[in-house]
Amino acid sequence: LGQDLTALGLNLNSPDNIYLSFAGPWADSACRPQDMDHNVPPEYLIN
Amino acid sequence: PLGPLPLNTDHQSQFTMMEAAFYHMPHASDSERMRVYLPKNICQTPAYYNQVLLPHSDTVEFFQRLSTETLFFVFYYMEGTKAQYLAAKALKKQSWRFHTKYMMWFQRHEEPKVINEEYEQGTYIYFDYEKWGQRKKEGFTFEYKYLE
Amino acid sequence: YNDPPGLQEKTEDLLRQWRNVLLSPLTEREITQNFNIYMHRMNINGILKSDDMITRFFRISAQRCIDDVYQLLAEDRLNPPVAGPKRKKYYMACDSFIKLVSLLIKNTAEASNPTPKLNLLNKILGIIAGCLLQDHEEHGTNFQQLPYHRLMLILFLDMNTSEPVLESMNYQILTAFCHTLRIVRPSVAPGFCYAWLEVVAHRAFLNRVMALTPQQKGWGMYSTLLIDLFKFLDPFLRNTELAAPVMTLYKGTLKVLLVLLHDFPEFLCDYHYGFCDAIPPNCIQMRNLILSAFPRNMRLPDPFTPNLKVDLLVEINSPPRAVINYGTLIPPSQFKKDLDAYLAARTPVTFLTELRSNIQVVNDPARRYNCQLINGLVLYVGTQAIAQIKAKGQTPNMSTIAHSAHMDIFQNFTVDFDYEGRYLFLNAIANQLRYPNSHTHYFSCCLLYLFAEANSEAVQEQITRMLLERLIVNRPHPWGLLITFIELIKNPAYKFWSHEFVHCAPEIEKLFASVARSCI
Fold first, then answer.
1. Cβ distance C445 to C401 under 8 Å?
2. Do A36 and B81 touch (CB under 8 A)?
3. Which of B6, C39, C75, C95 is buried deepest, with most CB atoms within 10 A?
């Protein structure tokens, strides 16, 4: 019967695009804000 | 009619290589830039814990409901990420300002009547890397012109 | 070969110095300043004096990074760290080397001259691919995907940042990566297949290839990469029980297709034919997923709407979005000539009697028919039929599609082919049942006509089975498939309920009845 595609950890009911927070083919849930690079002002990169 | 298919030698050797790779699956952090403090490290938590992202957890409104300490934690420990960006935005909504020259945050005690070159009274905090914690800067006067 | 004496040591020394530059907590601006000093040092060491020397430097450095990772992995296998491996240490060598490479690429020649930059990028990508394939060959099942995955991904992220110097060559950068990913595609480097899909499905890669590249110019390259993946999976998906490594890759592929279905359905519409040509026929759900895509600006009427008049829908007469070269669906050959002759004159009848032998495959234990040829033939003949009907100012229905050269050929499949050949033929037709368009309309009529005119109940049963197996799998289901099945069980002209096989098992009968209830 194949897979229950709604149970693969993708928010398929999202009205917005989901690819920008897609965490990859083996991830069980989307990326969290702390996983995603963001163009922050260089001063924020305190290293 | 398309029943099971015996693999030819070529496909068999491909399967052997795939199977070997299966035991070295990419790790979640392999596909992310190096995070200095909190690398992505998925660990199994009890099923009754939140397993999926809280709805709207990637919005400023969500971050505004976090405590100030949490926002500063996110700002310092998750640099270069969307979380840091959202934490900074939420802090600014709490009238914190990031002082780019001194790499510290500043919060006015009260909104100034007029904004000019005068010094302002406020709370100045910075991150003390030696003691690895947030510190208040006592007796510090503020050079308004560096305000971000 | 023939590296100048001392180059290996010199390169390792330079790499170590570079890593120390990065270790000190610097801001991006300071790193760039330090890089210029470092470039000067590379120059003094003669690294930048010729293309050949840079190539050698890259190859030795890349190999150094790869060896580092292998060594760390080996150490961790010997003495597994208590708190689990800190992945970060595997990344250090690769990330710092790629940082150097990215700065070299961006700072080579003036900003307005992309060529030298692209040459360097292709050079390093070629070296990574070359080392990977050589290592894959030599290490066999001890091959480790991690270093190559890291080198390729971080290089892509660095080349994908929004900087003016990169903006002008984004498309060439993307092309270079797609080209490299083809060179190390899963059927060539199966030991790298999981990392390969990680890169191909990475959100930054998806964003660049599907959204940021203008005029969808990346879509063709991306479809080629996906077809490479389907072709690799094909032999392993023929069994209903999938081995764990295959199931993991299969489910990962499903996820990527779901993201594409949700965010870029037009992409799946455009390339559905090539995808279904490469996906094994028994891979029902994956194929349904692709065929369920429809343009986002389209509103599909509920297939269960009572008295739905499909032929009155606005879109039903428009040809579907598709990136297909109809002229090359069937390779130029005597068979193609005979086919065109038959379509034009509906003679000689020998074309029909020889059809099966033209499509059969003799020396391949894995298959008896050329599935790709059947798919191409069905679509080629069908589109010719649609054009002919349209030229007469008609629309497809049970009478306008009958008694034609096109229908002769289709009916020949149902009477002259064995069970397997018929199955592949019926699949080729059902693969055209998608969202409302002229192909869906014609091929839906076609299937219903073949059912009504079948010369044996076995054919009618097989048509029903083929539709059923596509309907009982988990969602999504293509709109065209649903409306065809509903028409078949609802319209008394097909006498569906009178057939023995409809009542062959209680659960089957119940299923038909439940579908019937929901649409009547």
1. yes
2. yes
3. C95
Which pTM was predicted?
A: 0.93
Cβ-in-10-Å burial (0-12, 13-18, 19+) of B9 comes to: exposed
Name the 3-class secondary structure at C56.
helix
Q: Could you give the CA distance from residue C123 to residue C202 in angstroms, rounded to a whole number?
A: 23
Q: Are A6 and B49 in contact (CB under 8 A)?
A: no
Give the nearest chain B residue to C369 (CA atoms). B2
Distance CA C485, CA C483 (A): 6
Which of C145, C154, C187 faces B14 most closely, judged by CB atoms?
C187
Q: Which residues of A touch B72 (CB under 8 A)?
A: none
Nearest to A25 among C26, C252, C473 (CB): C252
Q: Is B27 on the interface with A (CB under 8 A)?
A: no
- Whole-angstrom distance, CA of residue B38 vs CA of residue B76: 11
